[in-house]
């Protein structure tokens, strides 16, 4: 051991003082040949066997990645991709240790104090299996990229399914995947990539190949990535410096086409940044150099006609022609014929839109194309701007789009009827569903800004997209830029595989060790009956309770009844800690209602009724449960006329009272109410 010389005199003085005060200690420590007598326990080598904690999905028995286990003194451990934790905490061996358990989309029941966890007898070389209930419809499988994918499994001496379970290509983190089949391999490309040796990594596209599903691993098991690397082992930059001089490059919308000689070529739309958008264009992959080269740079950076601003590309056929369709503007609404000469010519791109040919979006002055009978003409049109979801909604509100006009992008939650705003999506044909299916990432979700994923389907890739079902939720964590894996087809498409970037970007959440800023794989069983999406029929319903008169049987001083329907998800009503308790809203007049939404805080109702009344005195039950589990309850019932609606709690789920972030009631709008109130 080396000492800084400026500290040596102070250290020696301390040693001499200790010798003078407790000479016996130092005399024993200086025994010849290391025969130490009475060596303190604290200085002995700690060499205990590891304790294995295996956390599994209660439904499938498969290990769950990314579960946090936190001790009562806030030491956190995270399961690896096999659901394992190799526990070896000095001082906690041969102890009963309580672990708080948490993982987005999974949970264990609360105890009487509201804690979700389990006490475990920790012994050297021992093991325990803990089950968690899956809340998400989609099942989390494993982490695809980054360091330590199977860290704990390796420490436990277990066999891992992939060849590089600890560090592959010196990749610490990777953003937003694009995948395509090309020349008998699967090619994978990512955006910005982190490395171990410095905080700044590769910002000009990284890539890897893997075997085709028939030759490589089953996607249920994992992906063996063969990274394209530099001499030092770190992933290579696949977009060399271009003439625009920008430092950052990303690729989107992968395509394979034949060149003039009939050879298959790999193309990609690209964007460069410095850090603002600098240029757009098309790249071609050089097989010999294993990197992209520029085919064309499109003029300017603000033109809506360009592919390459984001999203995924999908091949499909329409009218006997092959096309690539892109999701860069939330939904698939840009396409180009799958030919080299068309792809490099931005004037050949078509846009799915109801606008009059040759026009652009202009708010209330937007020009729409209608036939002789006044019917709106949606279609693929060149040099005519597409509509985003927000623009279509604005035209509806302005009356430019009429009530009987076809709507393509007004996606609704099939359970609640709420609007679902899409930020990015991945759309592919699915043989099992006999439709095009979307995995869409929500924008401004209720539990996270960019962490909620939805499932939807339509007869064509461009829609119309009507209703969706939430399949993944995250609590204050992002899960963005989803990508379906169309090449992994099992049981005629029954099982759908997709991944997205798991990161704390755009949140206040701390980064999850090893997992943050990496790709996470999920699996969705399309035979699940909850995915039988049926668009709602009848009159459009709206939320009726916001801001209306509300009362409760009791309220905590800081959490009054008025906090339960103020439209603010950060305020809540909380009752006294006794049964029964109730909260009721006066809609002001009898209304036709058919749904109630309860957004519970941690103190939830295990047993409760939804009751309705027209006089506030005589109540009728429209719903009863004795097995509530908290979270968000969406209660649908036969349409009934009532002025008053209440939640009547009979059995608390915790030792505390009842607490609701929001108490919402849905029904038909009165004639004087505008349809835009449908948003929550």
What key attributes describe this structure?
about 675 residues; mainly beta; eight-stranded antiparallel β-sheet; five-stranded antiparallel β-sheet; 40 strands; about 40% strand; flat; disordered N terminus; disordered C terminus
What would you say this structure looks like, in words?
The chain is mainly beta and 680 residues long. Helices cover 6% and strands 38% of the residues. It is built from 5 helices and 40 strands. Strands 33, 34, 35, 36, 37, 38, 39 and 40 form an 8-stranded antiparallel sheet that branches. The chain has a 5-stranded antiparallel sheet with strand order 20-21-22-23-24, with no helix packed on it. A 5-stranded mixed sheet has the order 25-29-28-27-26, with no helix packed on it. β20 and β21 form a beta hairpin. α1 packs across α2. It is flat, with a radius of gyration of 30 Å. The relative contact order is 0.08.
- Overall strand count: 40
**Kindly state the mean pLDDT as a whole number?**
90
Radius of gyration: 30 Å
Q: Oligomerization state of this entry?
A: single chain
Give me the secondary-structure category: mainly beta
Query: In terms of per-residue confidence, which ranges show pLDDT below 50 for 5 or more consecutive residues?
Result: 1-43, 672-680
Tell me the overall shape.
flat
> How many strands, what sense, and barrel or not for the largest sheet?
8 strands, antiparallel
Q: Between the first and last Cα atoms, what is the distance in angstroms?
A: 64 Å
Helix percent reads under 10%
